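Practice problem 4.
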Protein backbone atom coordinates (compact mmCIF):
# COMPACT_ATOMS: atom_id res chain seq x y z
CA UNK A 1 0.00 0.00 0.00
CA UNK A 2 2.63 2.55 1.00
CA UNK A 3 4.36 2.19 -2.38
CA UNK A 4 1.24 3.57 -4.03
CA UNK A 5 0.61 6.40 -1.56
CA UNK A 6 3.40 8.67 -2.76
CA UNK A 7 1.77 9.25 -6.16
CA UNK A 8 -1.95 8.97 -5.48
CA UNK A 9 -3.88 11.75 -3.70
CA UNK A 10 -6.53 10.40 -1.34
CA UNK A 11 -9.94 11.67 -0.30
CA UNK A 12 -11.55 11.92 3.11
CA UNK A 13 -13.98 9.16 2.09
CA UNK A 14 -11.08 6.83 1.34
CA UNK A 15 -9.32 7.59 4.61
CA UNK A 16 -12.56 7.06 6.56
CA UNK A 17 -12.37 3.35 5.72
CA UNK A 18 -8.80 2.95 6.94
CA UNK A 19 -7.13 2.10 10.26
CA UNK A 20 -5.33 4.75 12.27
CA UNK A 21 -1.92 3.44 11.21
CA UNK A 22 -2.90 3.41 7.54
CA UNK A 23 -4.25 6.94 7.83
CA UNK A 24 -1.01 8.15 9.41
CA UNK A 25 0.97 6.43 6.64
CA UNK A 26 -1.11 8.32 4.09
CA UNK A 27 -0.51 11.62 5.86
CA UNK A 28 3.21 10.86 6.11
CA UNK A 29 3.22 10.35 2.34
CA UNK A 30 1.64 13.82 1.87
CA UNK A 31 -1.36 12.53 -0.12
CA UNK A 32 -4.04 14.27 1.96
CA UNK A 33 -4.16 17.80 3.38
CA UNK A 34 -7.76 18.20 4.57
CA UNK A 35 -9.66 17.94 7.86
CA UNK A 36 -9.64 14.84 10.07
CA UNK A 37 -13.17 15.04 11.50
CA UNK A 38 -14.86 11.65 11.33
CA UNK A 39 -11.65 9.68 10.78
CA UNK A 40 -10.43 6.79 12.96
CA UNK A 41 -13.41 6.10 15.19
CA UNK A 42 -12.39 5.47 18.78
CA UNK A 43 -9.08 7.35 18.62
CA UNK A 44 -8.14 10.51 20.46
CA UNK A 45 -7.44 13.42 18.12
CA UNK A 46 -5.22 16.31 19.17
CA UNK A 47 -4.20 19.83 18.29
CA UNK A 48 -0.43 20.25 18.07
CA UNK A 49 1.84 23.11 19.14
CA UNK A 50 5.62 23.04 18.66
CA UNK A 51 7.82 25.65 20.31
CA UNK A 52 11.44 26.22 21.31
CA UNK A 53 11.96 24.62 24.71
CA UNK A 54 12.72 28.03 26.23
CA UNK A 55 9.04 28.92 25.75
CA UNK A 56 7.75 25.53 26.84
CA UNK A 57 7.25 26.04 30.59
CA UNK A 58 5.06 29.12 30.13
CA UNK A 59 3.04 27.44 27.40
CA UNK A 60 2.46 24.32 29.48
CA UNK A 61 1.27 26.47 32.39
CA UNK A 62 -1.00 28.39 29.99
CA UNK A 63 -2.66 25.11 29.06
CA UNK A 64 -2.97 24.13 32.72
CA UNK A 65 -4.67 27.44 33.53
CA UNK A 66 -7.09 27.13 30.60
CA UNK A 67 -8.05 23.43 30.58
CA UNK A 68 -11.45 23.83 28.90
CA UNK A 69 -9.85 25.41 25.84
CA UNK A 70 -6.42 23.73 26.01
CA UNK A 71 -6.73 20.27 27.63
CA UNK A 72 -3.13 19.07 27.52
CA UNK A 73 -2.82 15.39 26.61
CA UNK A 74 0.86 14.99 25.76
CA UNK A 75 4.26 16.67 25.98
CA UNK A 76 7.33 15.57 24.05
CA UNK A 77 10.89 15.35 25.28
CA UNK A 78 13.11 18.18 24.07
CA UNK A 79 14.18 17.53 20.48
CA UNK A 80 12.10 14.36 20.13
CA UNK A 81 9.41 14.37 17.38
CA UNK A 82 7.35 11.73 19.17
CA UNK A 83 4.90 11.25 22.04
CA UNK A 84 5.09 7.65 23.24
CA UNK A 85 2.11 8.07 25.60
CA UNK A 86 -0.09 8.80 22.57
CA UNK A 87 1.14 6.17 20.16
CA UNK A 88 4.00 4.01 18.97
CA UNK A 89 5.73 5.29 15.88
CA UNK A 90 4.08 8.73 15.73
CA UNK A 91 6.29 11.22 13.88
CA UNK A 92 5.20 14.76 14.73
CA UNK A 93 7.13 16.10 11.75
CA UNK A 94 4.94 14.41 9.16
CA UNK A 95 1.86 12.69 10.58
CA UNK A 96 -0.62 15.58 10.31
CA UNK A 97 -2.35 16.65 7.08
CA UNK A 98 -1.13 20.28 7.19
CA UNK A 99 1.01 22.50 9.41
CA UNK A 100 1.06 26.26 10.00
CA UNK A 101 4.43 27.91 10.57
CA UNK A 102 4.46 31.07 12.72
CA UNK A 103 7.22 33.64 13.02
CA UNK A 104 6.80 36.44 15.54
CA UNK A 105 3.14 35.45 15.93
CA UNK A 106 2.26 35.59 12.24
CA UNK A 107 1.45 32.66 9.98
CA UNK A 108 4.10 32.74 7.29
CA UNK A 109 3.79 29.31 5.70
CA UNK A 110 1.54 26.29 5.32
CA UNK A 111 3.39 23.03 4.73
CA UNK A 112 2.62 19.31 4.45
CA UNK A 113 5.49 18.30 6.74
CA UNK A 114 8.08 20.01 8.90
CA UNK A 115 11.07 17.72 8.43
CA UNK A 116 13.19 20.57 7.10
CA UNK A 117 12.19 22.87 9.97
CA UNK A 118 12.72 20.52 12.92
CA UNK A 119 15.21 21.67 15.57
CA UNK A 120 16.90 19.95 18.47
CA UNK A 121 15.47 22.48 20.93
CA UNK A 122 11.81 21.98 19.94
CA UNK A 123 9.17 20.72 22.36
CA UNK A 124 5.74 19.58 21.21
CA UNK A 125 2.43 19.81 23.04
CA UNK A 126 -0.71 17.83 22.19
CA UNK A 127 -4.05 19.39 23.15
CA UNK A 128 -7.26 17.38 23.06
CA UNK A 129 -9.66 18.04 20.18
CA UNK A 130 -13.46 18.04 20.05
CA UNK A 131 -13.36 15.75 17.00
CA UNK A 132 -12.75 13.03 19.58
CA UNK A 133 -16.26 13.11 21.07
CA UNK A 134 -18.04 13.47 17.73
CA UNK A 135 -18.07 9.70 17.23
CA UNK A 136 -19.99 9.29 20.50
CA UNK A 137 -22.49 11.96 19.47
CA UNK A 138 -23.02 10.32 16.09
CA UNK A 139 -23.52 6.93 17.71
CA UNK A 140 -26.29 8.60 19.72
CA UNK A 141 -27.95 9.75 16.49
CA UNK A 142 -26.83 13.38 16.66
CA UNK A 143 -25.71 14.69 13.28
CA UNK A 144 -22.37 16.46 12.96
CA UNK A 145 -23.30 18.90 10.22
CA UNK A 146 -19.73 19.73 9.18
CA UNK A 147 -19.04 16.03 8.59
CA UNK A 148 -22.20 15.39 6.58
CA UNK A 149 -21.55 18.48 4.46
CA UNK A 150 -17.84 17.70 4.06
CA UNK A 151 -16.35 20.90 5.51
CA UNK A 152 -14.10 21.87 8.41
CA UNK A 153 -16.01 22.66 11.60
CA UNK A 154 -16.71 26.42 12.02
CA UNK A 155 -14.54 28.14 14.63
CA UNK A 156 -14.89 31.64 16.04
CA UNK A 157 -13.02 34.21 18.09
CA UNK A 158 -14.96 35.10 21.26
CA UNK A 159 -14.99 37.79 23.92
CA UNK A 160 -13.99 35.19 26.54
CA UNK A 161 -10.53 36.01 27.95
CA UNK A 162 -8.04 33.28 28.70
CA UNK A 163 -5.89 33.28 31.83
CA UNK A 164 -2.59 34.80 30.71
CA UNK A 165 0.68 33.06 31.59
CA UNK A 166 3.87 34.86 30.62
CA UNK A 167 3.44 36.07 27.05
CA UNK A 168 0.64 33.61 26.26
CA UNK A 169 -2.92 34.93 26.42
CA UNK A 170 -5.70 36.53 24.39
CA UNK A 171 -9.33 35.66 23.69
CA UNK A 172 -10.56 32.08 23.57
CA UNK A 173 -11.75 30.32 20.42
CA UNK A 174 -14.82 28.07 20.17
CA UNK A 175 -16.10 25.52 17.67
CA UNK A 176 -19.80 25.36 16.79
CA UNK A 177 -22.16 22.49 15.99
CA UNK A 178 -25.94 22.79 15.46
CA UNK A 179 -27.82 20.60 17.91
CA UNK A 180 -31.57 19.72 17.98
CA UNK A 181 -33.11 21.53 20.93
CA UNK A 182 -34.57 18.31 22.33
CA UNK A 183 -31.10 16.68 22.40
CA UNK A 184 -29.25 19.38 24.35
CA UNK A 185 -29.24 17.44 27.62
CA UNK A 186 -28.00 14.33 25.80
CA UNK A 187 -25.15 16.31 24.24
CA UNK A 188 -24.14 17.77 27.60
CA UNK A 189 -24.14 14.35 29.24
CA UNK A 190 -22.16 12.65 26.50
CA UNK A 191 -19.56 15.40 26.10
CA UNK A 192 -19.02 15.81 29.85
CA UNK A 193 -17.32 12.40 29.79
CA UNK A 194 -14.60 13.86 27.49
CA UNK A 195 -12.84 16.50 29.64
CA UNK A 196 -9.62 15.67 27.77
CA UNK A 197 -11.38 16.81 24.56
CA UNK A 198 -13.01 20.06 25.77
CA UNK A 199 -15.94 18.42 27.57
CA UNK A 200 -19.49 19.79 27.49
CA UNK A 201 -20.49 22.89 25.50
CA UNK A 202 -19.54 26.14 27.22
CA UNK A 203 -22.42 28.07 25.60
CA UNK A 204 -25.68 27.19 23.86
CA UNK A 205 -27.85 29.75 22.12
CA UNK A 206 -27.26 33.37 21.15
CA UNK A 207 -23.74 33.70 19.69
CA UNK A 208 -23.70 37.43 20.47
CA UNK A 209 -23.47 36.54 24.17
CA UNK A 210 -19.90 35.36 23.60
CA UNK A 211 -18.94 38.03 21.09
CA UNK A 212 -19.75 36.32 17.79
CA UNK A 213 -21.34 38.80 15.40
CA UNK A 214 -21.87 36.72 12.26
CA UNK A 215 -22.47 32.97 12.29
CA UNK A 216 -22.06 32.93 8.51
CA UNK A 217 -18.46 34.16 8.71
CA UNK A 218 -16.39 31.85 10.93
CA UNK A 219 -12.79 32.85 11.57
CA UNK A 220 -11.66 29.32 10.66
CA UNK A 221 -13.45 26.46 8.94
CA UNK A 222 -16.69 26.86 7.01
CA UNK A 223 -20.21 27.97 7.93
CA UNK A 224 -22.85 25.25 8.26
CA UNK A 225 -26.64 25.67 8.16
CA UNK A 226 -28.68 25.69 11.36
CA UNK A 227 -32.08 24.14 10.71
CA UNK A 228 -35.45 24.80 12.32
CA UNK A 229 -35.57 23.24 15.75
CA UNK A 230 -31.81 23.45 16.20
CA UNK A 231 -29.64 25.74 18.32
CA UNK A 232 -25.93 26.54 17.98
CA UNK A 233 -23.77 24.86 20.62
CA UNK A 234 -20.25 26.09 21.28
CA UNK A 235 -17.29 24.16 22.67
CA UNK A 236 -13.85 25.25 23.79
CA UNK A 237 -11.43 24.91 20.88
CA UNK A 238 -7.71 24.15 20.73
CA UNK A 239 -7.21 26.89 18.15
CA UNK A 240 -7.12 29.04 21.28
CA UNK A 241 -3.47 27.98 21.41
CA UNK A 242 -2.85 29.60 18.03
CA UNK A 243 -4.33 32.88 19.23
CA UNK A 244 -2.03 32.63 22.26
CA UNK A 245 0.94 32.15 19.93
CA UNK A 246 -0.05 35.26 18.00
CA UNK A 247 -0.01 37.22 21.27
CA UNK A 248 3.26 35.73 22.50
CA UNK A 249 5.12 36.27 19.21
CA UNK A 250 7.85 33.61 19.63
CA UNK A 251 10.59 33.61 17.02
CA UNK A 252 9.14 30.41 15.59
CA UNK A 253 6.20 28.14 16.37
CA UNK A 254 4.50 25.38 14.43
CA UNK A 255 0.92 24.15 14.79
CA UNK A 256 -1.57 21.92 13.03
CA UNK A 257 -3.74 23.66 10.46
CA UNK A 258 -7.19 24.22 12.04
CA UNK A 259 -9.20 21.03 11.55
CA UNK A 260 -6.17 18.98 10.47
CA UNK A 261 -5.33 17.06 13.64
CA UNK A 262 -2.87 14.56 15.03
CA UNK A 263 -4.68 11.21 15.22
CA UNK A 264 -3.27 9.15 18.07
CA UNK A 265 -3.40 5.52 19.11
CA UNK A 266 -5.01 6.49 22.42
CA UNK A 267 -8.57 5.46 23.20
CA UNK A 268 -10.93 8.42 22.78
CA UNK A 269 -12.50 7.86 26.21
CA UNK A 270 -9.29 7.63 28.23
CA UNK A 271 -7.87 10.76 29.91
CA UNK A 272 -4.16 11.07 29.32
CA UNK A 273 -1.43 11.33 31.96
CA UNK A 274 0.71 14.37 31.18
CA UNK A 275 4.17 14.92 32.69
CA UNK A 276 4.20 17.69 35.29
CA UNK A 277 6.54 20.65 35.09
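Answer key:
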Amino acid sequence: MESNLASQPMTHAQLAKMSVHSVRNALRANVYSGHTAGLCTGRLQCNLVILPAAEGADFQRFCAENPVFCPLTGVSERGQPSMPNLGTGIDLRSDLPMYFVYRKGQTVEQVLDINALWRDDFMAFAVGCSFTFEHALMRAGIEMRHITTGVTVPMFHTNIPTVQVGPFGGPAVVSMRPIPEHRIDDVKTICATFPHAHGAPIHIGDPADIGIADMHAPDWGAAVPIKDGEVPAFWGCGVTTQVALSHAEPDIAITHAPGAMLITDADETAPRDVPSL
